User: Which sequence fits this backbone?
């Protein structure tokens, strides 16, 4: 039986998924994962016309999947339905671009200075927000020249890594790539950057199944070559990591050869902190940390939770002397990549994030650390507290600074 | 004493069809049903509207009848029919000579059919095994048996027919060799009464022998039990038949959101208290997996058994009985047994129910001296809802709920739409698996419904409530509360209705011995048995 | 510290698994709890009914385990009231009475029998709860059982989004997130509180709200309030789950939620740990002891329903030997197929399995 058939049959309607859905908690009108997933899927299979408006409100956080006692991949059933449902008008045009951050990034980073002036101003000023149905409440992230040249290292004892940067690092925060490489290098890894563009999560989130599949196919070819050459893949973006590990093989299930390669890539893909944690487990982590007296709050991004690797950053940062870190454990931030930028979805996005914002306010940290770029955007937007990638803290604890400073 | 012209005993498709046919001819009739409509063989079959393909080789007459009726039912009851089409699949393990015979016989009967290559068949039905040798198409369809029976009754009631559910025939009074009245017992209240009549029709299927005995005549009927498995979701989009001599578990019917595999065939002494045997499940599954391999892993929701009532005349000549075809028989007990005003209609199959009703009503009309032709092949059973009502429904309900309500409710959709417009909270979906709204639930429980609900278990037959994966665990409770709210039951009655309801739902699942439905059943037992201190009658 | 190495792995997070993890954590073990979903918490409220002791349970074990459990739940902010030797009757949404010995305070407050008037409060639009039905049935049942409590039905309106049919989960989410909702609920209940001795509502006072806040709500109301577990999801049960989980996290228990255990790492009569189905690569967690507390169907991990258990709660193989010398069972798995496990057994066996993992047998050794 196909994976999604089994998944559909496994639902016992216990509603565990509904109790953890962040969208349902914040927006009572949202029908919830049980209904949009397995319940409607039976009727969609029957060929009935089914309500599709709410599908776009699924944040793709996978919390329903994790709560299910019967291994129903609730959010996959929703994502597949979303990909089959077609959009019209300007939202179709907008979501075309939102589905393709790499294409957008390539264009916008040709002359980053000009782009940033234009985007840095409130989007609405050009009427773009109104026309494109993009909220004028947010600022776009700054774009940078996608310069990911890493200092060449060889002879690392821990092995060879290919760093899959993802669009947020490549186009918005390229300095993070060097920081990741430096931290890895201190721990015995040689790192080079390789990808074939966007991982496909934004395409899937925007209901563009064809584009998502194309992204997966391109990356699988590129990354499986690296795996054959004996490298492991490392990501610092949880959404890319989730896609490489758990998404690509399913997207490519129509092509057994590609699917096989996707599984090879998945088996060899690691989250940055997962890799560092395994060094720590072996007693091989470089722990020559300088004291950093600071109070941090850690937020687990949804796509990090869904990888099943625990909370490695939380444990790693606790090893740095002087750091007091609290796990916010307050659910999804509500940003969900491009979701929070959409004019019609902005209120829902902020309502979902409220629980997290409240927790940050209660905790009063100097900074929030979280590995997901759009979670950071949302936390800064919702709380005014600075949010950074945890690798920056680790690098500073090593007494080093990145090659480039943080933009914006 | 209540009086009428004709009393019909049996509320299956045939009895319901007779009531409708007589009502159209202006003949007054009352139908007695011992439980709820379609409780016997009608409600316990595949729901396959045969194209005749199954019978072309073996019984060309039956095939012809099926083909004619298939087209008529699609025309008069479009709201009951899912015109999904069907295929006869050529499996490599089956006799190739039969494939050729089938092709020739289909052509002889005039069955519209096309030959499909292996690739074409697999493209239509990806779950077929790759080893198949091809397939033939045919105009099979799925028919919602509960809606079919109910539509006949509703249409008849609108024209003066009457129906009494949960009223079993208790006796037939014969004076001077002539039927004078029929006595019935309301099994929910225990009350008994007589209906004076000129004629009584025995359309009680598997119970025909015991009903006939009330008139002192013998109608030999053999009950052949067929068990079927219901799977949680559609694995095929059209009816899949195995192209071979008809046998066990060789038909899979997509029936709304579920699909139904069957059947087995075991002779049983009585149509009452049918249960599937554990062996039957394994037997059906083994054969089903030859048909569609993934059935071996698919989730079974429940198992049910029905009894085909087969007419077995003692001698070939059937004592002068007018044998219409090998499919069914109309027995005039006046000429056969000297009992005037009593006829039995036995045998047959769901697809030909209308034809059976027609020949019965023809005989009855002739005996009553009524000169009115049969019109059931032309008059639509229930008009479809009009476009304006549909448009309003689509505004009020989610797309899937509107689509289902359109199909399931026909002209009654107007009641639902009006109710929701007046009280928007009635748009609430009570049974989420089958998209039953509170408005629909209140309608079937209310007085506007021409076929009233008496037991909570009836609600499912009217609406499909509780027919999905949870098997009523969650929606059955809400339906019980709705019945209490509507004044249908007192709180004490509602509570015992719910107990009986859960028992019935649990029974059908208890034969599922593996997979997710076992856990679903445990969940239901734990929830109601432990958390709510509810004890089922089986003492679990 | 090895992030995949533990002293104790508990599979399952029902009452037995939670109790087992708490027992280990209280004695300094590094515990991993591996589970999916909320088990029976989503169907009930965690109430404990009296059960006869089975062959593997002793009166001493019962006293010790329940004393520990009371302390655990008190620290979690979800104190249990009642007494295991007592028997009280709690109303249900079916309008029947459930026989209970101990229950979380916000449920226990509903025990029947004291003379007085209990108002069963229905909520406009909440179709899964009918106050008239419940009150009528409870009155009939109370009369039959000779209980002095009288029940009356009342109805209130609560704010909820237009066009949405609210469920108890919606109200619970509002209770968790929105102070204005709490105020509206309080205002709606106040007039009823003036005339009734007890208020009975469908469970909806938040799934993450702490008991302290509920206690505060109750103080402001001025009348005892009891929540009934509803059709799933049952909010009082979920609240108990989240409270216990928060407590265990504070005690250092690591939770692995959502990744099913695919196999037990058994070798030479010893269980080295479990393998869980995480994306891309299965993850192996190792431990000195493993407790199987994942419900009636736990036997699947052993490839069968098991051949019984020894007096140290260890599942046995066909030859009658322990499958793993450090592999223990707790909760419903120990019950015969078709027999309901029961919460008392869950707690007793969860505690005992936890103690066995700690390496302490104590007074509660089997009789």
Assistant:
């Amino acid at each position: 039986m196909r994976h999604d058939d089994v998944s559909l049959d496994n639902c016992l309607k216990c509603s565990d998924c509904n109790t953890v859905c962040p969208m349902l908690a914040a927006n009572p009108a949202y029908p919830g994962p049980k209904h949009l997933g397995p319940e409607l899927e039976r009727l969609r299979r029957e060929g009935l016309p089914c309500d599709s408006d709410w599908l776009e409100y699924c944040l793709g956080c996978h919390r329903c999947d994790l709560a299910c006692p019967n291994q129903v991949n609730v959010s996959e059933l929703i994502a597949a339905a979303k990909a089959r449902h077609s959009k019209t008008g300007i939202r179709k045009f907008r979501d075309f671009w939102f589905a393709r951050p790499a294409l957008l990034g390539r264009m916008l980073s040709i002359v980053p200075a000009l782009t940033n002036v234009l985007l840095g101003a409130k989007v609405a000023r050009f009427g773009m927000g109104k026309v494109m149905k993009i909220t004028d409440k947010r600022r776009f992230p700054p774009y940078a020249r996608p310069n990911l040249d890493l200092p060449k290292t060889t002879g690392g004892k821990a092995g060879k890594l290919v760093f899959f940067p993802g669009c947020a690092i490549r186009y918005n925060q390229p300095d993070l790539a060097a920081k990741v490489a430096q931290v890895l290098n201190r721990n015995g890894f040689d790192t080079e950057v390789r990808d074939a563009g966007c991982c496909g999560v934004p395409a899937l989130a925007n209901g563009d199944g064809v584009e998502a599949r194309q992204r997966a196919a391109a990356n699988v070819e590129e990354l499986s070559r690296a795996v054959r050459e004996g490298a492991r893949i490392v990501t610092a973006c949880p959404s890319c990591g989730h896609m490489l590990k758990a998404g690509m093989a399913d997207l490519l299930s129509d092509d057994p050869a590609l699917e096989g390669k996707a599984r090879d890539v998945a088996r060899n893909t690691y989250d940055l902190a997962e890799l560092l944690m395994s060094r720590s487990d072996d007693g091989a982590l470089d722990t020559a940390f300088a004291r950093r007296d600071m109070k941090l709050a850690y937020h687990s991004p949804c796509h990090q939770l869904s990888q099943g690797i625990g909370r490695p950053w939380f444990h790693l940062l606790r090893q740095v002397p002087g750091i007091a870190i609290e796990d916010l454990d307050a659910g999804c931030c509500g940003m969900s990549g491009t979701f929070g930028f959409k004019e019609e979805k902005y209120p829902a996005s902020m309502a979902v994030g409220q629980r997290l914002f409240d927790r940050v306010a209660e905790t009063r940290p100097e900074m929030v650390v979280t590995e997901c770029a759009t979670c950071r955007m949302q936390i800064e937007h919702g709380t005014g507290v600075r949010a950074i990638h945890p690798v920056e803290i680790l690098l500073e604890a090593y007494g080093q600074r990145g090659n480039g400073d943080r933009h914006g | 004493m209540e009086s009428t012209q004709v009393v019909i005993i049996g509320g299956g498709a045939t009895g319901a069809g007779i009531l409708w046919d007589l009502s159209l001819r202006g003949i007054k009739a009352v139908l007695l049903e011992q439980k709820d409509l379609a409780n016997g063989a009608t409600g316990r079959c595949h729901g396959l509207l045969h194209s005749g393909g199954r019978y072309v080789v073996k019984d060309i007459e039956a095939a012809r009848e099926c083909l004619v009726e298939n087209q008529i039912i699609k025309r008069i009851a479009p709201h009951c029919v899912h015109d999904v089409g069907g295929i006869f699949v050529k499996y490599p393990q089956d006799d190739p000579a039969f494939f050729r015979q089938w092709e020739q016989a289909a052509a002889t009967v005039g069955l519209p059919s096309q030959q499909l290559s292996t690739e074409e068949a697999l493209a239509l039905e990806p779950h077929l095994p790759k080893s198949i040798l091809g397939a033939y198409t045919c105009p099979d369809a799925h028919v919602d048996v509960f809606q079919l029976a109910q539509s006949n009754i509703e249409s008849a009631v609108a024209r003066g027919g009457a129906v009494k559910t949960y009223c079993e025939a208790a006796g037939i009074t014969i004076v001077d060799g002539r039927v004078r009245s029929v006595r019935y017992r309301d099994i929910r209240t225990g009350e008994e009464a007589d209906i004076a009549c000129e004629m009584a029709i025995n359309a009680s299927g598997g119970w025909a022998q015991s009903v006939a005995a009330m008139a002192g005549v013998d109608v030999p009927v053999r009950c052949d039990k067929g068990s079927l498995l219901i799977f949680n979701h559609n694995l095929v989009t059209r009816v899949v038949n195995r192209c071979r001599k008809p046998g066990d578990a060789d038909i899979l019917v997509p029936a709304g959101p579920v699909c139904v595999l069957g059947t087995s065939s075991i002779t049983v002494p009585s149509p009452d208290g049918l249960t599937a045997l554990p062996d039957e499940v394994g037997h059906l599954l083994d054969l089903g997996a030859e048909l569609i391999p993934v059935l071996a892993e698919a989730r079974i929701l429940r198992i049910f058994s029905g009894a085909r009532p087969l007419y077995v005349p003692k001698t070939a000549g059937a004592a002068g009985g007018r044998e219409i075809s090998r499919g069914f028989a109309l027995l005039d007990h006046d000429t056969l047994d000297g009992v005037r005003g009593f006829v039995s209609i036995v045998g047959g199959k769901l697809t030909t129910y209308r034809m059976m009703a027609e020949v019965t009503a023809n005989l009855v009309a002739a005996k009553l001296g009524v000169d009115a032709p049969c019109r059931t092949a032309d008059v639509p059973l229930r008009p479809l809802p009009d476009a304006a009502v549909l448009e309003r429904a689509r505004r009020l309900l989610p797309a899937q709920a509107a689509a289902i309500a359109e199909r399931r409710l026909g002209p009654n959709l107007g009641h639902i739409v009006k109710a929701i417009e007046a009280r928007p909270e009635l748009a609430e979906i009570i049974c989420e698996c089958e998209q039953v709204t509170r408005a629909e639930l209140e309608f079937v429980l209310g007085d506007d419904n021409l076929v009233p609900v008496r037991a909570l278990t009836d609600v499912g037959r009217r609406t499909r409530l509780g027919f999905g994966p949870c098997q009523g665990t969650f929606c059955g409770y809400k339906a019980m509360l709705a019945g209490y709210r509507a004044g249908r039951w007192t709180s004490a009655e509602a509570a015992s209705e719910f107990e009986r309801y859960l028992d019935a739902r649990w029974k059908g699942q208890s034969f599922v011995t593996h997979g997710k439905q076992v856990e679903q059943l445990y969940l239901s037992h734990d929830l109601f048995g432990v958390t709510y201190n509810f004890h089922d009658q089986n003492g679990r | 510290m090895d992030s995949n190495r533990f002293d104790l792995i508990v599979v399952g997070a029902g009452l037995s698994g939670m109790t087992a993890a708490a027992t280990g954590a209280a004695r300094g073990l590094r515990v991993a709890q591996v589970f999916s979903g909320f088990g029976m918490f989503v169907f009930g409220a965690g109430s404990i009914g009296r059960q006869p002791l089975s062959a593997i349970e002793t009166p001493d074990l019962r006293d010790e385990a329940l004393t520990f459990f009371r302390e655990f739940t008190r620290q979690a902010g979800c104190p249990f009231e009642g007494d295991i030797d007592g028997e009280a009757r709690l109303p249900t949404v079916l309008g029947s009475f459930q026989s209970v010995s101990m229950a979380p305070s916000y449920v226990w407050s509903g025990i029947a029998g004291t003379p007085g008037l209990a108002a069963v409060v229905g909520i406009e639009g909440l179709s899964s709860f009918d106050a008239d039905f419940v009150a009528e049935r409870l009155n009939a049942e109370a009369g039959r059982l000779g209980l002095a409590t009288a029940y009356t039905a009342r109805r209130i309106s609560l704010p909820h989004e237009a066009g949405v049919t609210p469920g108890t989960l919606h109200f619970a989410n509002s209770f968790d997130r929105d102070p204005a909702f709490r105020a509206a609920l309080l205002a709606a209940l106040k007039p009823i509180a003036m005339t009734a001795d007890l208020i009975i509502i469908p469970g909806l006072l938040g799934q993450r709200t702490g008991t302290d806040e509920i206690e505060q709500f109750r103080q402001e109301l001025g009348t005892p309030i009891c929540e009934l577990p509803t059709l799933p999801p049952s909010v009082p049960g979920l609240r108990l789950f989240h409270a216990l989980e928060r407590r265990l996290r504070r005690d250092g228990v690591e939770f692995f939620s959502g990744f099913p255990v695919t196999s037990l790492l058994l070798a030479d009569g010893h269980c080295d740990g479990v393998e869980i189905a995480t994306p891309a690569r299965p993850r192996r967690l190792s431990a000195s002891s493993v407790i199987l507390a994942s419900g009636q169907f736990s036997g699947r991990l052993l490839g069968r329903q098991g051949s019984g258990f020894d007096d140290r709660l260890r599942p046995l193989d066909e030859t009658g030997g322990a499958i793993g010398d450090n592999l223990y069972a707790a909760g419903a798995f120990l019950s015969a197929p078709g027999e309901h496990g029961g919460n008392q057994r869950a707690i007793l066996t969860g505690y005992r399995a936890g103690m066995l993992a700690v390496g302490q047998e104590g007074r509660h050794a089997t009789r």
